[in-house]
């Protein structure tokens, strides 16, 4: 495995680095240089540091595929069908991306493996490496080759300028994205800047295959599901070909910023920071920002209560919203699972692209909307109205796909469509040819040989 040697001190000092060193030598603050090359403010702000560290307490997470095996069919052919968990505390971000079956197995001989771009939203070492290697140079590296370079997890310098408490977006693609939707970071109020620092990572993205897999936030036409779909359709982009239905698929990923952006709360100036890291009071009665970024309901008293008086009523309201959204999502999923298999039956019976085009496009668009709603963690709380609209349209599109397919199947005299048993994760994975036990073994070997021997302990946290 080729080891990079690009520590800041090994390079010719840039004017910026020089300024930084002078700043430290002159003892302006007593701060140290962090391993990501920025001036570390942690020592100067113990309350923020301690609360930042405390996200380690949020170690619980759920297995999404076990909770809902339909996902395995919908994501068949993509690595999401192998393993997918709900998010947990920031302190686990590096370890979780290192340990999941989706990323981080040594590339097979002659294969390129996964792009280093998968590090981008886990660590301030990503913007450092982007600075050192160039955006494309960084993305062209293999994910595992940069593993030993990753020493920090979602840290001060991901949100604050080096050596200061001033907010910033160190990721160039995130700065560009905010400008694309006419919300350039520099021109925003401190409140919106707070949301945008979260929006560096809590947004949907894809890797640009024609540009060494650099991360891109596809907001050229705007950041709604329709706008992003238009962008992907115009570029005839797809992430993978679905092995069952042959649909060129799109994948949405945690579009929290997008949904919040259009919500009632955003209009009121209530941001991610208001709800997930609200103000706290220290033992001397002094206010500070609680950096234990957590679910929002634990903070009801310090964040919601000013506007929503009853915690019990809010709990009930959220439970109802969650049920409503999940029920609609289930309708889409059941329709789409059938549609994928009906398309397969049509192909097997000799259907051609001319016949199949409308149905396949409906599957693509329906699953995109479903994913854009459901891969956003907490849409029922962030923007339930958008969730309803997305899922209603996804239901319409999936029904339209099935009605086209039913005509094609009739024309082709297909009377029976095979739908496999997907009543558990194991059965669903078996249906799409995923051997979890084998993947786990491969992963275990990689963890023992590579992560445990050569990577920073931050990559083992929680394991
Ligand atoms: C995920 C983003 C994020 C990370 C990581 C982060 N901060 Fe902050 N920080 C914020 C936000 C947002 C605010 C609030 C800004 C506002 O509302 O004006 C803030 C405020 C502050 C402030 C101003 C005083 C206060 O409490 O409001 C200090 C000091 C600070 N952070 C220090 C740190 C330190 C030290 C670390 C690392 C241990 C850190 N931050 C990590 C986002 C972050
Ligand atoms: C550098 C990228 C990055 C930034 C910046 C970032 N996050 Fe995260 N966030 C993540 C990742 C990655 C996870 C999932 C970690 C895991 O599951 O291992 C996560 C998880 C979370 C969770 C789930 C916590 C839990 O215990 O369930 C919340 C809530 C959250 N982030 C909110 C925020 C907020 C609010 C901000 C801005 C103040 C923010 N994040 C900034 C990357 C980031
Ligand atoms: C009005 C308050 C509010 C705002 C604003 C808000 N959230 Fe949330 N968020 C919630 C609630 C409520 C949940 C559901 C989980 C809970 O707290 O019970 C949630 C869930 C989440 C989760 C999933 C946590 C998990 O473990 O399942 C993430 C991640 C998240 N929010 C990130 C963000 C980001 C990023 C923003 C800003 C772009 C944001 N939120 C804005 C209230 C809010
Ligand atoms: C600055 C005031 C304010 C704060 C703080 C606030 N909200 Fe709200 N919230 C509102 C208003 C106003 C509405 C719209 C009226 C309504 O539906 O109650 C709303 C609506 C909602 C809705 C319904 C959303 C919809 O579109 O139907 C939920 C859920 C919600 N809030 C949850 C929360 C939670 C949870 C918190 C704290 C983590 C919180 N809010 C903090 C003002 C606030």
UniProtKB/TrEMBL annotation:
**Where does this protein chiefly localize?**
other
Keyword Calcium: yes or no? yes
Coiled-coil spans in chain: 311-338
Which interval of the chain is the signal sequence? Answer: 1-34
Give a GO biological-process term. Answer: anaerobic electron transport chain
Q: Where does the protein end up?
A: Cell envelope
State which Enzyme Commission number(s) the record gives: 1.7.2.2
Keyword Iron among UniProt keywords: yes
Instruction: Show the catalytic activity.
Output: 6 Fe(III)-[cytochrome c] + NH4(+) + 2 H2O = 6 Fe(II)-[cytochrome c] + nitrite + 8 H(+)
One GO molecular function term of this record is: nitrite reductase (cytochrome, ammonia-forming) activity
Q: Which GO terms describe its cellular component?
A: outer membrane-bounded periplasmic space
Keywords attached to this Swiss-Prot or TrEMBL record, sorted alphabetically, are: Calcium, Coiled coil, Heme, Iron, Metal-binding, Oxidoreductase, Signal
The record's family statement is: Belongs to the cytochrome c-552 family.
Quote the PANTHER family the UniProt record gives.
CYTOCHROME C-552, CYTOCHROME C-552 RESPIRATORY NITRITE REDUCTASE
User: What protein am I looking at?
Assistant: nitrite reductase (cytochrome; ammonia-forming)
């Amino acid at each position: 495995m080729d080891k990079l040697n690009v520590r800041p001190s090994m390079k010719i000092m840039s004017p910026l680095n020089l300024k930084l060193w002078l700043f430290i030598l002159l003892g302006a603050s007593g701060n140290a240089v962090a391993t990501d090359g920025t001036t570390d403010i942690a020592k100067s702000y113990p309350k923020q540091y301690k609360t930042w560290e405390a996200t380690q307490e949020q170690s619980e997470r759920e297995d999404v595929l076990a909770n809902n095996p339909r996902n395995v069919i919908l994501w068949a052919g993509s690595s999401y069908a192998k393993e997918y968990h709900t998010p947990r505390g920031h302190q686990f971000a590096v370890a979780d991306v290192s340990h999941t079956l989706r990323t981080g197995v040594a590339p097979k001989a002659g294969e390129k493996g996964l792009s280093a771009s998968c590090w981008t939203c886990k660590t301030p070492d990503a913007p450092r490496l982007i600075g050192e290697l160039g955006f494309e140079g960084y993305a062209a590296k293999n994910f595992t080759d940069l593993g030993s370079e990753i020493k920090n997890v979602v840290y001060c310098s991901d949100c604050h300028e080096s050596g200061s408490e001033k907010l910033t977006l160190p990721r160039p693609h995130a700065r560009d994205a905010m400008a694309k939707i006419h919300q350039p970071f520099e021109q925003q109020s401190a409140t919106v800047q707070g949301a945008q620092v979260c929006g560096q990572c809590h947004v949907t993205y894809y890797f640009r295959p024609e540009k060494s897999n650099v991360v891109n936030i596809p907001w050229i036409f705007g950041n709604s599901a329709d706008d992003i779909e238009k962008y992907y359709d115009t570029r005839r982009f797809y992430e993978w070909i679905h092995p069952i239905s042959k649909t060129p698929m799109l994948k949405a990923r945690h579009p929290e910023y997008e949904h919040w952006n259009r919500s009632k709360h955003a209009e009121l100036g209530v941001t991610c920071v208001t709800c997930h890291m609200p103000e706290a009071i220290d033992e001397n009665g002094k206010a500070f920002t609680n950096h234990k970024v957590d679910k929002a309901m634990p903070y009801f008293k310090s964040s919601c209560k000013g506007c929503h008086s009853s915690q019990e009523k809010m709990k009930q309201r959220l439970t109802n919203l969650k049920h409503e959204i999940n029920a609609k999502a289930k309708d889409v999923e059941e329709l789409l699972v059938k549609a994928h298999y009906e398309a397969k039956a049509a192909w097997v019976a000799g259907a051609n692209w001319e016949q199949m085009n409308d149905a396949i496009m409906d599957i693509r668009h329906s699953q995109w909307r479903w994913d854009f709603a459901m891969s956003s963690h907490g849409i029922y709380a962030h923007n339930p109205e958008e969730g309803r609209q997305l899922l209603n349209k996804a239901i319409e599109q999936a029904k339209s796909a099935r009605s086209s397919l039913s005509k094609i199947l009739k024309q082709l005299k297909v009377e029976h469509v095979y739908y496999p048993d997907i009543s558990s994760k194991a059965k669903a994975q078996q249906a799409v040819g995923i051997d979890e036990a084998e993947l786990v073994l491969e992963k275990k070997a990689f963890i023992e040989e590579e992560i445990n021997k050569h990577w920073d302990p931050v990559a083992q946290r929680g394991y």
